[in-house]
Write a structure and sequence with these properties.
The chain is 51% helix and 16% strand.
Length: 299
Amino acid sequence: MNGEHTTDPATEAFVAYRNLLFTVAYEMLGSAADAEDVLQETWLRWTGVDLARVHDQRAYLVRITTRQALNRLRTVQRRREAYVGQWLPEPLLTAPDVAEDVELSESVSMAMMLVLETLTPTERAVFVLREVFEVGYEEIAAAVDKTPAAVRQIAHRARKHVDARRSRAAVSAREARAVVDSFRRALETRDPQGFLALLAPDVVLVSDGGGIKRAALRPVVGADKVTRFYLGGTRKHDATVTTEPTVVNGAPALAVRVDGELDGVMALRVEGGLISGLYYVRNPEKLSHVLAETSLTLH
């Protein structure tokens, strides 16, 4: 034994592309837990592949991941049809530097993930692979079992659909953090005027309790209504609300505590110096991934 550590080529390749594969799966599924399951399935299939016959390991792994994610997506869509109240993606903790990458941070943002939910499974796969990861049409065709010509048409249709619904203008990470910091103070002090001043007139609040925690069954639209809904709810319980800044889905966000216990994770969309979207995930089943990576405790 010479003391050198060796890793088999299959493991080395999988580890090298694991972050890419996870992001592909997450953007297709909106769930970190489901994405992890897809990666497990991808790994099991990858270990049975003859690497000598693989010319492009990255493309091959993306193909396996895409197929497994498509299979799972068709299953979870049926579950979501029976979901209680509004459905939001599972919050994904991301490194601060992701927020500096405007294209990547937008692609995993809560707002974009909700737009992707309006695509068919195949359209979603094609859009994610082409627009986010710049995968070639030939590779995408192999992954979704379509011809390259068909993939081009699907990509065009999906891009047009997304462009019509995506955020109006991106803001810098610094600007977003400044707005979130001000919003944080308004939340903790329950200052209705400070809260209201930070909201766009047509702001939308989407809250996801999954039938387990209290949440609005439909989106709350308008600055006045959002202010009354959120601040009114915390006043009723006479609770102490504190927040912790974090980065979720590539953007500044808040982990909200009520009487010291984690109540949920709130992602914000900032446009033109105002908050145009609030996405509050309270469903405990969607916070397990966040809890596993932090010292937060769930009530």
